[in-house]
Write a structure and sequence with these properties.
This protein has 398 residues and is α+β, with helices and mostly antiparallel strands. 37% of the residues lie in helices and 22% in strands.
């Protein structure tokens, strides 16, 4: 089995993800192309300096604007919000693959007494009145219900009936998110929003095992390199060690992935066979490693497996948003700073959208990072781009 250095592993991952060298992803088309490459990007509603999905795209898509993601989701309908790695955004062309997931949701929904009657009522109302939110759907009361968006147990909880019905129909695939106003979701019938050929397409995966293997392959494509180890990059797949090893063996035998060793790490890594040319370019020195600086989202595909990041980069990152203030080492919403093939620090930058001022509250440099003119110039450019991304015209440094 071929072996590579840790630096070569880092360069391959960053090249695959479009985070080093010249920009490969540009504008709205580039944003769509990246989501298709990654399979899915995680959605998180917290918006300190951009939502997680927006931050993920701004770091690797040249000239990215938040409106581009909104348009891809709710105007072009080329992307959908749905479950995958937790709540995610992925290409609508992948809708047929998740048919078994939706069927499981429908089967679970049938176990809740009275839910089907409310579902019929909600569909009829939406058919006649158009997109609704849980606030505008005229279904009163509460029911005992468990969202099947997260298969986390068989417990039930009492929840607002209008919200529960909409979420159940959404997970069933009867509804999709039509648009959002702030954090409020408005739902419409899937058949009004997605093409008929996508909605009626047969599931390409004949069995649950095939679906699992397809998802493993997709996660490898998202990370670039993934090791044979319990990994948070596989979150949401409900896969144990034996199933993971079997999936990797089958995908290897089918010629879809290629195993490789990384120096001083005992577990084998895997990359997609379609990336063999990129791997050769990295090893031959023919790849573009021109350094550029990016601020990386907390739930970026690059950061999905923080143990892998520590093993390859010797960089330890913890998202401290849920850490009590007195226990935080850094800030409430700090972003890793990537420069070239190294993590050089982390930054806390907060926009005031009323005044149009981006305040850089703090920057923490990693040990051994030299504050060269090249680094300072890259930082200045990156902060300016980040201010523009957040609709800020001025920058203040604390």
């Amino acid at each position: 089995m071929q072996a590579i250095t840790r630096q070569q592993a880092r360069q391959f991952i960053l090249s695959k993800q479009g985070l080093i060298g010249q920009y490969r992803f540009i504008g709205k088309d580039g944003a769509y192309d990246y989501v298709r490459q990654a399979g899915c990007i995680q959605f998180d509603p917290v918006d300190v300096c951009g939502k997680n999905a927006e931050l993920t795209l701004q770091s690797r898509v040249k000239n990215f604007k938040k409106s581009m993601l909104y348009d891809l989701l709710y105007k072009d309908r080329k992307l959908v919000d749905y479950a995958d790695k937790e709540l995610s955004i992925w290409s609508s062309e992948d809708w047929p693959y998740f048919s078994s997931y939706r069927e499981r949701s429908r089967n679970l929904g049938r176990t809740f007494k009275g839910l089907q009657k409310l579902e019929k009522q909600a569909i009829e109302y939406i058919e006649e009145n158009g997109p609704v939110s849980s606030e505008s759907l005229p279904i009163e009361g509460e029911i005992y219900w468990h969202s099947s968006m997260h298969w986390s147990g068989n417990w039930q909880k009492k929840s607002r009936a209008s919200r529960s019905v909409l979420e159940q129909l959404y997970t069933d695939g009867e509804l999709v998110i039509h648009h959002k106003k702030g954090s409020r979701k408005y739902y419409d019938l899937a058949r009004k929003c997605l093409p008929k050929d996508i909605l009626e397409a047969d599931n390409p995966c004949r069995t649950d095992e095939e679906f699992l293997h397809w998802r493993v392959l997709r996660r490898i494509g998202a990370t670039g390199l993934l090791w044979d180890k319990n990994s948070t990059a596989l979150l949401g797949l409900d896969i144990n060690a034996a199933e993971r090893k079997k999936a990797l063996e089958i995908l290897t035998e089918a010629g879809k992935i290629i195993p490789i060793m990384v120096e001083d790490i005992k577990q084998p890594f895997y990359y997609r066979a379609e990336d063999a040319e990129l791997m050769r370019a990295v090893l031959d020195g023919g790849a573009d490693f021109k350094p550029r600086m990016s601020f990386i989202a907390p739930l970026d595909p690059l950061m999905w497996d923080k143990s892998l990041i520590f093993a390859l980069w010797d960089f330890q990152y913890s998202w401290e948003i849920y850490t009590p203030a007195v226990k935080r080492r850094y800030g409430y919403y700090t972003l890793p700073i990537l420069f070239g093939d190294r993590f050089v620090g982390r930054i806390e930058a907060v926009p005031d959208r009323k005044t149009g001022i981006l305040t850089v509250r703090n920057i923490w440099w990693e040990d051994g990072v030299r504050r060269t003119k090249k680094l300072s110039t890259a930082l200045e450019r990156a902060v300016k781009d980040f201010a523009k991304f957040n609709d800020c015209k001025e920058i203040e440094i604390e």
